[in-house]
Q: What sequence folds into this?
């Protein structure tokens, strides 16, 4: 065996070991797809997905971009003291960084998920936390109420035009 073929064999063996190590995090008896599905979707029973789904595009194209614009804008207005980190109007997700409300001393961070085009409380999901952990249910409910109230005001203003 020549030195070049020996190096190639060693590289091939190292690559195989590296790939085997990548699969070690998966539980025996479960496919990679099953583990990734659980990581991405949790145990919500969502349809299985593979890499090829990316190329197919979304199955339900009617759901893309269908978020309530009043709830979306109201959430941005009510939580305007929080720096926006990312927004995705197609999925309805707004992610913010930590910010302190005017006159407050505690920093908050929020993730807002607008799930439906209806102006309804069920269309709004809010996760609010401080650096110490999640806020109380009452605080989160008060922010949700403020967002929904502002959304109704925006819709009423829109109807007057």
A:
């Amino acid at each position: 065996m020549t030195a070049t073929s020996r190096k190639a064999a060693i590289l091939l063996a190292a690559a195989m070991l590296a790939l085997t190590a990548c699969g070690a995090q998966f539980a025996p008896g479960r496919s990679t797809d099953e583990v990734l599905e659980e990581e991405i979707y949790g145990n919500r029973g969502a349809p299985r997905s593979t890499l090829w789904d990316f190329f197919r595009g979304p199955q339900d194209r009617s759901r893309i971009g269908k978020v309530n614009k009043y709830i979306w804008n109201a959430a941005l207005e009510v939580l305007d003291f929080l720096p926006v980190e990312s927004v995705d109007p197609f999925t309805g997700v707004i992610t913010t960084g930590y910010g302190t409300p005017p006159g407050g001393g505690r920093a908050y961070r929020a993730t807002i998920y607008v799930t439906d085009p209806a102006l309804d409380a069920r269309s709004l999901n809010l996760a609010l936390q401080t650096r110490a952990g999640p806020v109380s249910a009452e605080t989160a409910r008060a922010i949700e109420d403020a967002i929904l109230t502002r959304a109704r005001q925006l819709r009423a203003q829109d109807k007057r035009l």
Observations:
- The chain has two domains: 3-57, 69-160.
